[in-house]
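Students often ask why inverse folding is considered easier than folding. One informal answer: many sequences map to the same fold, so there is more than one right answer. In these notes we will look at a single instance of the problem. The structure comes first.
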């Protein structure tokens, strides 16, 4: 009988925990798919290096700031050789989700190279 009662309590706790997790996920992602917990920051700097990092991420080293990355950029059509020709040693504007270094918008000379922002 005690085992059955403990099972019931454990099941109840698991359901409450699951609902709490679901609530947190729904709260963190707004109705338009944008993260409402993150803050978007923008930096303008010169690209000093471009390389693959993580799982097919495109990583940009900047002259006066830390590195930023496009998540799975190589899987989504970006190519390192093309990016090297387009942006290496050029001034770029990067918008990223703070506190991470995940790029959500990337421009060079006013031309959008990558964006996951919705209008």
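Output (designed amino acids):
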């Amino acid at each position: 009988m005690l085992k059955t009662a403990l099972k019931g309590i454990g099941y109840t706790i698991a359901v409450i925990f699951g609902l709490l997790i679901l609530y947190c996920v729904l709260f963190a992602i707004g109705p338009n798919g944008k993260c409402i917990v993150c803050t978007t920051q923008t930096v303008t700097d010169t690209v000093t290096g471009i390389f693959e990092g993580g799982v097919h991420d495109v990583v940009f080293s900047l002259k006066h700031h830390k590195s930023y990355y496009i998540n799975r950029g190589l899987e989504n059509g970006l190519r390192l050789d093309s990016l090297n020709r387009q942006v290496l040693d050029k001034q770029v504007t990067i918008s990223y989700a703070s506190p991470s270094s995940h790029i959500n918008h990337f421009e060079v000379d006013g031309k959008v190279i990558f964006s996951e922002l919705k209008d």
